[in-house]
Structure formats: C-alpha cells, structure tokens
Task: inverse folding
C-alpha cells in the first residue's frame, strides 16, 4: 500500500492505469477470538464464496467482486492474500492454466517467492474458495490465493522481515500492471 499511496511517478502511473480495490481482513472478529480462518461465528470465510451466508463478510466481498467484474475494464487480477505458517517463503495457490501471474511474480519477487511451491488446481475441497469462485463463476482469469510466510525464506534459514513482505507487496502491484500491459486491446476482462 505504501507504493500505491506514495507520490512517486510510478505510483501515479499505477493509479492512473488500474483501480486497486483493497478489502481488509474479512475475519478480524474471528482472529480476536483466536481463529485463523473463521469469523466470530465460526464460519471458514474462504470456503463459502459459492453460496455465502446472508449478511456475511464473504457475501459482501463477493457482491463487490461481482460489481467490479461488470465494470468497464473488468478485473485484471484478484489476489486473496493469506499468511502461511506451515511453509517458508511465498507462493500462489492458482487455478488450472493460470501460470502467467506466478511467472511474472517470480521475475520480480526475489528469493522470498518459491515458484516451485505454486499449485494450479481447483479441487472439490477448494471449490468454495474465493479464487476458485472468482475464476470459475465470475470469469476472472487471474484469480490467485497468495500465501506468504511470516517465518523464513524458502531456504529455511533466513528470516523474513516486514521490509521483505513490503517489497513482495510492491512486486504484486507491479505484476498486475504487467498483466494489464499484456491484455489484448479489445479485452473486456
């Protein structure tokens, strides 16, 4: 966010070419209760995107994404950001045939990103996740869950700092711009 909110020429160009919509953590009430993924009612919000419960955080987020998909220019990329404690580094959980964005990220993220850990599937178990629904039902070609550790680099030795994560975030923003530049001129999505 620091890059996008700065007064640099790059930030001005990014804001002029793309609308970045940032949704905050959907489950702060659940985190306050000690949950990692669930909200205060115990619902795993990342598995209810197909049929979100009425008045839930997932319903509000999905409705916003549906409106954005119908807007002029559509959605270039949907990135669902998650912290990960089980694997070092950063990687994506992606849908089949969507390697373009992880490949772009690999070119700018440095050693924090492990392209080899990226997966490309939309299994029955993940069917209700945000990225699968955005890709399968809403037609967002570049819908990914981005997992980033708060522990170690992929080498398992060097520790990740907030500065490393900020640099990774800048790479994600720049990667969206690259995707935009690669779109066919007549593309609606």
Result:
């Amino acid at each position: 966010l620091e890059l996008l909110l700065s007064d640099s020429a790059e930030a001005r160009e990014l804001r002029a070419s793309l609308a970045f919509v940032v949704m905050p953590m959907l489950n702060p009430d659940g985190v306050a209760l000690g949950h990692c993924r669930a909200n205060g009612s115990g619902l795993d919000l990342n598995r209810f995107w197909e049929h979100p419960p009425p008045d839930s955080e997932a319903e509000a987020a999905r409705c916003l994404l549906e409106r954005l998909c119908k807007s002029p220019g559509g959605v270039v990329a949907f990135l669902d950001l998650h912290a990960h404690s089980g694997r070092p580094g950063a990687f994506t959980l992606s849908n089949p045939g969507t390697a373009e964005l992880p490949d772009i990220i690999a070119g700018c993220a440095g050693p924090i990103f492990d392209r080899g850990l990226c997966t490309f599937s939309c299994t029955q178990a993940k069917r209700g996740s945000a990225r699968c629904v955005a890709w399968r039902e809403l037609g967002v070609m570049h819908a990914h869950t981005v997992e980033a550790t708060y522990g170690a680099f992929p080498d398992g030795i060097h520790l990740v700092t907030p500065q490393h994560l900020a640099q990774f975030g800048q790479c994600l923003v720049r990667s969206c711009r690259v995707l935009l530049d690669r779109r066919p001129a007549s593309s609606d999505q």
Observations:
- The first helix runs from residue 2 to 5.
- The two ends are 24 Å apart (CA to CA).
- The mean pLDDT is 91.
- The chain is about 35% helix and 10% strand.
